[in-house]
Design a protein that fits this description.
Blueprint lengths: L4 H12 L14 H7 L3 E5 L9 E3 L4 E3 L1 E5 L11 E5 L7 H5 L2 H10 L7 E5 L18 E2 L2 E2 H16 L9 E6 L1 H12 L6 E5 L7 E3 L14 E3 L8 E5 L4 E4 H9 L4 H9 L1 H7 L8 E7 L6 H14 L5 E5 L6 H6 L1 H11 L14
Parallel strand pairs: 5-6, 5-9, 9-10, 10-15, 15-16
Antiparallel strand pairs: 1-4, 2-3, 4-6, 7-8, 11-12, 13-14
Length: 362
């Protein structure tokens, strides 16, 4: 029994959410049992459950994992809204089926608290091999691959072709968690021809956040002392964990994608959601935006969300903010707070059509 204590302890820490979001679910999820518990259904296009069902990506030059959830009573004679669920770092698409959040969405739909919706959960890891701590692409185009193009030009058409999805942009939403929220918000703001709503949880929606006070980018948000970060420092501390004993630096996340030289500034300006408020031509009311954050976020993403909403207000753009004031950046936070994001998206997504609205067959 002694030899099992280490793995079991690590698993318990992961499931309880007492560690940063750096665990990996691997193949612990029994998809058949999950589908038995769901009123809806998860379709498997992964290599995670004994067979390789992945979709091939010519853009990335390799096969990629994808889960697709269909709601209770899914009927191909109807057309449904769709949400693209973009995972956080340190994990991959496994986390979509590895926590109770999907079961809760399923129950929300059953109770009529959320319109029936299809949810697609692609993989953002650079290598796609389900390795713990793999490089997260942030779902943007970078040195590790054209992941934004993969999402927009391959995953979206795949889902639209295989499933009965409404074509209107207002029927397409994004839910991004942590690093997935950076890419999700950035894509939604720049590709408003495709998406009408976006929600993020604990995400870096202002990677150029800075403050004139000594603690700089680690400061709490104050509009009187806010300033834009004008240069990239690969040694900047991004995340602080374990009472300050564990610190992670910018180069770990930014370096593999964009390098560590002066060119990084241009990449970040072009993709940073806060910058896009001023450069993308976004008009008030054009995109429904939601930011959820923990009040004790280890990455200071609470300040990102607050500064993003403040900057958006200066442009007449509304950002709905919701906080879990005592939450830090861990699995528990993401497991417990997705329902708020789903409810927000459910208010703005076009509902499913009825069979009576479709053109009659021959």
């Amino acid at each position: 029994m002694r030899g099992w204590r280490g793995p079991i302890a690590a698993l318990v820490l992961l499931l309880l959410g007492s560690a940063p979001a750096d665990g990996q679910y691997y193949n612990l999820t029994n998809l058949k049992w999950l589908n038995h518990r769901l009123a809806g259904h998860v379709d498997d296009y992964t290599q995670n459950h004994g067979e390789d069902r992945r979709i091939y990506s010519p853009i990335l030059g390799r096969s990629r994992d994808l889960y697709v959830y269909t709601p209770p009573g899914y009927d191909p004679r109807r057309q449904y809204p769709v949400i693209f669920w973009l995972h956080m770092g340190y994990v991959d698409e496994h986390v979509f089926v590895g926590t109770p959040a999907l079961l809760r969405l399923d129950r929300m739909i059953e109770r009529g608290e959320m319109p029936p919706v299809v949810v697609a959960a692609p993989d953002a890891t650079a290598d796609g091999e389900n390795r713990t701590g793999a490089v997260h692409s942030l779902f943007v185009n970078s040195r590790v691959g054209r992941f934004e193009d993969h999402l927009v030009d391959e995953v979206l058409p795949f889902v639209m072709t295989r499933y009965s999805i409404r074509p209107e942009r207002e029927a397409h939403g994004i839910l991004g968690l942590s690093g997935g929220g950076f890419g999700g918000m950035s894509i939604a703001m720049r590709r408003r021809d495709l998406f009408g709503s976006v929600a993020t949880l604990a995400s870096p929606v202002n990677v150029r956040y800075d403050d004139i006070r000594p603690s700089g980018p680690r400061s709490e948000f104050n509009p009187e002392t806010y300033r834009w970060k004008e240069s990239y420092d690969p040694d900047e501390v991004y995340g602080v964990f374990s009472f300050g004993l564990r610190r992670t630096r910018a180069s770990k996340y930014i370096g593999p994608l964009f390098g560590d030289g002066p060119e990084v500034n241009d990449y970040l300006r072009a993709l940073n959601p806060a910058d896009l408020l001023f450069t993308s031509g976004l008009r008030p009311g054009e995109l429904a935006i939601f930011c959820h954050f923990g009040g004790r976020d280890n990455w200071n993403f609470d300040a990102h969300a607050l500064s993003f909403a403040w900057l958006a207000a200066s442009r007449g753009v509304h950002v709905e903010l919701v906080t879990d004031p005592l939450a830090s950046h861990n699995i528990h936070y993401f497991r417990e707070n997705q329902e708020d994001a789903y409810r927000f998206l459910g208010q703005y997504l076009l509902p499913p059509t009825g069979p009576w609205m479709l053109a009659p067959g021959p």
